[in-house]
Amino acid sequence: MSFHPIEQAPGRLNRSELAVPGSQPQMFEKAAQSDVDVIFLDLEDAVAPDEKAQARKNIIKALNEVDWNTKTMSIRINGLDTHYMYRDVVDIVEQAGERLDLIMIPKVGTAADVYAVDMLTTQVEDATGLTKRIGFEHIIETALGMQNVNAIAGASKRNESLHFGVADYAASMRARTTVIGGVNENYAVLTDPAEDGSRQVHWGDMWHSAIANMVVAARANGLRPIDGPFGDFSDPEGYKAAAFRAAVLGCEGKWAIHPSQIALANEVMSPSAAEVDKAERILKAMAEAEAAGKGAVSLDGRLIDYASIRQAEVLVEKAKQIAA
Ligand code: GLV
Ligand code: MG
């Protein structure tokens, strides 16, 4: 290990994260009763400019009055380039800070953006006498944010997670997309002709390097990497495929922009019974190997060593958290 310690963000379950517009209070109860891990009440892009002030009031009332049970509660504030943002933080933290766990900062571009919201949040927390510290979630969804992702990830003790905001990222990059978070048939490899002249098209994932880059920045700073939206909520298979790709790269959660996507995210982002069983057998085999003075052994015909223990421990820990 490096001599540089990595402090881990609070270990919240974040398999699914539901977006709920702050301007649609009729959706709040259903969200509160769902199986989602994290809810963000939105003040930003799902809310029209002339509804922003009312959405803020709806959110304050709901945070104070709705029974959100054990859910982690977040608000997505407006961008730092708008005049709505300071009041989002001041009003909501002042009037409903007790039930607010996280603030989601959209279109974050530099470490100084994080510093600015940290300063404002700290003042409001101190002035209202809040004793718990509200955490930050950052949406990496612009070219600037991706360029500065490492500095953003390390910019505040409040940081808990980085989210890949594919819709705005595509706009910022002027990428050619078809559906939010989906694939594009033009991002593909055409094989050389076979003997009979036939060729195959292998579609690729145009978001691979962006998500992988964000995961590195998140993990190197002890944060949770979370994959963002998948727009076509009538395509559960497409959603699951996107979620699996993100999970394989290290993401531990994915957004749900529709309640039907919550169960899909929870399923993909939870270790399967077979994975947990294998991890437990690895830990047992390694404990026996250690007792016999060995550093590596084989299990089911494959090598396992101390790196296998670390992977297995993460998996077993996650399974315990879900069970709890
Ligand atoms: C989320 O905010 C996105 O732009 O994808
Ligand atoms: Mg966005």
Q: Please write the string of helix (H) and strand (E) elements.
A: EHEHEHEHEHHEHEEHEHEHHEEH
- The quaternary state of the protein chains shown equals single chain
Biggest β-sheet description? 8 strands, parallel, barrel
Structural class: alpha/beta
Please tell me the overall pLDDT.
96
List the helices and strands and how they pair.
Blueprint: E1 16-21, H1 28-33, E2 38-42, H2 52-65, E3 72-76, H3 85-96, E4 102-105, H4 111-128, E5 135-140, H5 143-147, H6 149-153, E6 159-164, H7 166-173, E7 188-190, E8 201-203, H8 208-220, E9 224-227, H9 236-249, E10 253-256, H10 260-269, H11 273-291, E11 297-299, E12 302-304, H12 306-323
Parallel strand pairs: 1-2, 1-10, 2-3, 3-4, 4-5, 5-6, 6-9, 9-10
Antiparallel strand pairs: 7-8, 11-12
Helix pairs in contact: 2-3, 3-4, 9-10, 11-12
Bound molecules: glyoxylic acid and magnesium ion (MG).
Glyoxylic acid (GLV) binds at residues 106, 139, 141, 165-168, 228-229.
